[in-house]
What we know:
Elements: E1 3-10, H1 16-32, E2 37-44, E3 51-58, H2 61-68, H3 71-81, E4 87-94
Antiparallel strand pairs: 1-3, 1-4, 2-3
Helix pairs in contact: 1-3
Amino acid sequence: MSVVRMLYVKVKPETAAEAERIWKQECAPLMIQQPGCLSEKLLKCHDEPGEYISYSEWEDAAAIETYRKSKDHDVVVSHSRNLQGAKASAKTYEITG
């Protein structure tokens, strides 16, 4: 059964367009090419400006850990750190149904 990793991200509303551009052009392409990454989507919250969820589905938890130890993960993290005021937290879920 596959595993989902959700990265909850909050940026200042005035940097939202830049955050979306960075994610779509820089981060998502790196993630989707990782071994075991089945899909990657960016969800934009309608109720809270500047709030996003990076939703990625993986073959298994081992694929996520391999990605998290990769240089590509370091690049993704550096992009989010460059967005002033960005806050992020990640959680991993097992698909059960």
